[in-house]
C-alpha cells in the first residue's frame, strides 16, 4: 500500500485542497472517492481506506474547505472561503475526480462515498455529475423538514447581520447538535452519539480538527447543501441507472434513528432510480464506519462495490 499526500488548487482559487491517495500494491480494480463529514478530516478514513486497498481498490479523499489541512490556519477551521457555498465544495470534489481519472484512466470503475455532511455534498454531486461515476455510497445521511431549515437560515441571517459570517455561536451549535446525545445513557462526553466505541469517541474529542466550532458561514454552507438536495426537482437529476447504497446505524440521530434514511431511500426509489439498496445496522450510531461492528460494515460495502465493479467491467 502506497499513501501519498498532495495539494490540489480549490475551485475558489484561494485554498489548496489537502488530498490523500491510498494506492493498493495489486492491480487497481476500482477507485473510491471519499467526502468526509462536518468537523473532521480525511485522515480519519485511514483504516477504511487500507481495508479497501487490501481488496485492490484505490481510495482518494480531500479535506473540505474549512477542514483539516485545507484550512490555511486554525482561524479558518469551520469557515468556507467562498460565496458559492456548497456548490464550491461539490466543484472541488469533481476537480479531484477529474485529477484522479487523468492519473489512473477513465476506464477504471469509479465510485463516490460521502459521510454525514459529506453525504449531503455527495448527494448534490450526483445531481450534477452522476453520469461521471459508476456508483455512490451514502453513509450517515439525513434531512431536515423545510420549515426547520428555513427557520435555521433565518436565525443565521439575523446573527450574521450583527456578528458577521465568521462568528462562532454556541447557540447555533446547540440548535444543531443539542439533542443528539438524548437517547444515550450513561454518557461520558458530548459526542457519545457518534459511536459506541469509546476509543473512537475519546480520540475524537481530543483532536483539534474535530472540536472547533463552525462559523455562521459554515452553517450557511451546510444548510445550502440541504436545501439543494431536498428539492424534488434536483432529486430527479440523479441518473436513473446510477447504483446507490445507503448505509446507516438505526441509532444515528442525524438520520432520525433510521427513519429519515428510509424516507430518503423511498423518495429516491419513487424518482425512478433502479439499483438502490439500504443497510441499517442495529444499535449503530452516527459514524457507522467507526462502530464496534465496523468489519461487517466494511465487508458489506465492499461486497456491494464488488458486484457493481463486475457490471461496470462487462460494459467495456
UniProtKB/TrEMBL annotation:
Taxonomic source organism: Intestinibacter bartlettii CAG:1329
Domain of life: Bacteria
The Serine aminopeptidase S33 domain, residue ranges: 27-293
The protein's name: Serine aminopeptidase S33 domain-containing protein
Listed InterPro entries: AB_hydrolase_fold (IPR029058), Hydrolase_4 (IPR022742), MAG_DAG_Lipase (IPR051044)
Gene3D superfamilies in the cross-refs: alpha/beta hydrolase
Amino acid at each position: 500500500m502506497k499513501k501519498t499526500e498532495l495539494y490540489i488548487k480549490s475551485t475558489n482559487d484561494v485554498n489548496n485542497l489537502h488530498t490523500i491517495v491510498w494506492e493498493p500494491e495489486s492491480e487497481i480494480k476500482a477507485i473510491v472517492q471519499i467526502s468526509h463529514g462536518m468537523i473532521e478530516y480525511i485522515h480519519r478514513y485511514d483504516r477504511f481506506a487500507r481495508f479497501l486497498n487490501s481488496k485492490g481498490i484505490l481510495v482518494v479523499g480531500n479535506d473540505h474547505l474549512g477542514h483539516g489541512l485545507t484550512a490555511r490556519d486554525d482561524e479558518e477551521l469551520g469557515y468556507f472561503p467562498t460565496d458559492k457555498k456548497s456548490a464550491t465544495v461539490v466543484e472541488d470534489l469533481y476537480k479531484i475526480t477529474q485529477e484522479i481519472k487523468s492519473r489512473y484512466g477513465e476506464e477504471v470503475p469509479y465510485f463516490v462515498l460521502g459521510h454525514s455532511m459529506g453525504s449531503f455534498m455527495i448527494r448534490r454531486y450526483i445531481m450534477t455529475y452522476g453520469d461521471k461515476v459508476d456508483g455512490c455510497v451514502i453513509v450517515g445521511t439525513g434531512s431536515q423538514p423545510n420549515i426547520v431549515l428555513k427557520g435555521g437560515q433565518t436565525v443565521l441571517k439575523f446573527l450574521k447581520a450583527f456578528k458577521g459570517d465568521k462568528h462562532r455561536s454556541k447557540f447555533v451549535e446547540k440548535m444543531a447538535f443539542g439533542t443528539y446525545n438524548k437517547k444515550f445513557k450513561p454518557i461520558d462526553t458530548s459526542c457519545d452519539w457518534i459511536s459506541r466505541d469509546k476509543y473512537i469517541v475519546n480520540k475524537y474529542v481530543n483532536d483539534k480538527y474535530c472540536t472547533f466550532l463552525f462559523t455562521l458561514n459554515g452553517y450557511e454552507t451546510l444548510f445550502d447543501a440541504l436545501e439543494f438536495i431536498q428539492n424534488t426537482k434536483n432529486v430527479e437529476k440523479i441518473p436513473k441507472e446510477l447504483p446507490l447504497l445507503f448505509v446507516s446505524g438505526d441509532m444515528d440521530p442525524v438520520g432520525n434513528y433510521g427513519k429519515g434514511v428510509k424516507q430518503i431511500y423511498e423518495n429516491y426509489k419513487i424518482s425512478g432510480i433502479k439499483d438502490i439498496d439500504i443497510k441499517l445496522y442495529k444499535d449503530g450510531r452516527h459514524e457507522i464506519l467507526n462502530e464496534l461492528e465496523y468489519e461487517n460494515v466494511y465487508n458489506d460495502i465492499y461486497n456491494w462495490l464488488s458486484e457493481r465493479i463486475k457490471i461496470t467491467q462487462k460494459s467495456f
